[in-house]
Design brief:
about 50% helix, single chain, alpha/beta, 6-stranded parallel sheet, 16 strands, about 525 residues, binds 5'-O-[(L-methionyl)-sulphamoyl]adenosine
């Protein structure tokens, strides 16, 4: 039976429309999901929206509507964004679903059973924007003398009756976890940050609110709703089938942004330890996407709708750019010019042109009939180079979430093909040595198929179109197919004829696009 692989994104606050930062996380996680499907794993990929809490309640009030109406409206945009960007989620979860209430309440009861949940009174600082409690010592001074959260957001003094979670009792267990399993939080920079936060001492955490009611009710505690992060984190369990049938738990990977590491790498494992549940295998925090190096914000007016970018440049170009340009785990910058430059240089000129040249020569010169691959030293050297990129280097890098590095290896394979084309000059061989021309084109066809399969998690639609054109069966586009030595001879023997190709990667016009 296929090995299960459960991967999640963070669930976004639907208090506004999605922006490119949300799209980045969804796309990167989609590449992970698609990559693991290629390896034959039984992937379950979950994303969704985090609909409770004060931020949602206040935004809705400001717009003169109920929080449920705001959530319904905005959550639909997140789902639409995912669908438009080819994000192949298996489940889009909304925390307002009854099934999620049941899971969050079951988690609560399991935590309570540990004896580490007690009733008290919260007096301290709260940031609605971050939906987070902060210690006095963490606050910073704002320009006007206001106290701000470490993220620079306003905080308010809050006093109310509240349930607490005895987080302070988990310090040692958490530190043991990071020490014994260095992969639990990655990249290392984030792991170090988390470890020093925990070493600095943990206060108990307020986990319920009484001053508003937009949340999951605390079991047997009228007037209390769960702190939105308890409810939000529980979404991963809901998706796993908890509490009835948690067959998918634990998650293999939670992909999140660097601003919410504390919740996932400190609170979440502590909640799960209290509840006696297994921990996720890894939390990976990606960096922030900046607009031309600047933070995106509504007040600067530089918030970009990802669907506008996809419309202007194409979904696959946007996906390719984001994974190629930004080393995963670091912050990155995007701009229309950078997307155009990357797409034109790599997808249109290098890869697209290679495919177009090879396929049109086969269609035109050989009437679409596939020639045998070459057996000469040059041919073998190219095949070895491309096979090693596609079957080893790219998969290894993708498995390590080093996407930009994996794509670089892929590009090296593409370059090797282009050098080979230039050196062999099949257009000249047509007159001087037609048999050699055939061998060269056969070798290149072979390489094209491998390169297309290897990059398909990143550019799924273009890859599928190209593989259709190449006559590759939909069931033979995975890593097992890459390892299958006989595929090319079988395809040739099947009588498949290549049709004259249509270009897959149009060159983008820099002026129009900017
Ligand atoms: N609702 C919480 C997450 C709960 S998970 C149990 C939340 N929502 S969010 O809408 O603010 O952010 C959703 C995800 O988008 C987070 O992982 C966050 O880091 C990511 N990003 C938000 N802005 C971003 C960028 N500018 N760049 C990259 N990712 C960004 O936090």
């Amino acid at each position: 039976m296929a090995k299960p692989y459960f991967v999640t994104t963070a669930i976004s606050y639907p208090n506004g429309r999605p922006h490119i930062g949300h799209a980045y996380e969804a796309i990167a996680t989609d590449v992970i999901a698609r990559f693991h499907r290629l390896t034959g794993q039984d992937v379950y990929f979950m994303t969704g929206t985090d609909e409770h809490g004060l931020k949602m309640a206040q935004t809705a009030r400001g717009q003169g509507k109920g929080p449920r109406a705001l959530a319904d409206e905005m959550s639909a945009y997140f789902k639409e964004m995912d669908e438009s960007l080819d994000v192949s989620f298996d489940r889009f979860i909304r925390t307002t679903e009854p099934e999620h209430y049941a899971a969050a309440q079951a988690l609560w009861k399991a935590m309570e059973a540990s004896g580490d949940v007690y009733l008290g009174r919260y007096e301290g600082w709260y940031s609605v924007r971050d939906e987070a409690f902060y210690d006095e010592k963490e606050l910073i001074d704002g320009e006007g003398g206001d106290r701000l959260s470490p993220q620079g957001t306003p905080v308010e003094w809050t006093v109310e009756e509240s349930w607490f979670f005895r987080l302070s009792a988990y310090e040692k267990r958490l530190l043991d976890l990071y020490e014994s399993n260095p992969n639990f939080v990655q990249p290392d920079s984030r792991r170090n940050e988390v470890m020093s936060f925990v070493r600095g001492g943990l206060s108990d955490l307020s986990i319920s609110r009484t001053s508003f009611d937009w949340g999951v009710p605390v079991p047997d505690s009228p007037g209390h709703v769960m702190y939105v992060w308890v409810d939000a984190l529980a979404n991963y369990l809901t998706g796993a089938g908890y509490p009835e049938n948690p067959v998918r738990w634990p998650a293999d990977l939670h992909v999140i942004g660097k601003d919410i590491v504390r919740f996932h790498a400190v609170y979440w494992p502590a909640f799960l330890m209290a509840a006696g549940l297994e921990l996720p295998r890894q939390v990976f925090a990606h960096g922030f996407l900046l607009n031309r190096g600047e933070k995106m914000s509504k007040s600067i007016g530089n918030v970009v709708d990802p669907l506008d970018l996809a419309k202007a440049f194409g979904v696959d170009a946007l996906r390719y750019f984001l994974l190629r340009e930004v080393p995963f785990g670091q912050d990155g910058s995007y701009s229309a010019e950078a997307i155009v430059t990357r797409t034109n240089a790599e997808l249109a000129n290098s890869f697209g042109n290679l495919a177009q040249r090879v396929l049109s020569m086969i269609a035109k010169n050989l009437d679409g009939e596939l020639p045998a691959a070459g057996e000469a030293g040059d041919d073998r050297a190219l095949l070895d180079r491309v096979t090693s990129a596609c079957a080893k280097e790219v998969p290894q890098a993708f498995a390590d979430l080093a996407f930009s590095q994996g794509i670089e290896s892929w590009m090296q394979g593409v370059f090797a093909c282009n050098q080979y084309v230039d050196a062999q000059a099949p257009w000249a061989l047509r007159k001087t040595d037609p048999e050699r021309m055939k061998a060269v084109l056969g070798t290149l066809f072979h390489c094209l198929r491998d390169l297309t399969i290897a990059i398909s998690p990143v550019i799924p639609t273009s890859a599928a179109r190209l593989l259709d054109a190449l006559g590759i069966d939909a069931a033979a586009r995975d890593h097992a197919a890459l390892a299958d030595a006989g595929w090319y001879e079988r395809l040739r023997a099947s009588g498949f004829r290549l049709a004259p190709p249509t270009p897959i990667f149009p060159r983008l016009d820099p002026v129009e696009a900017a």
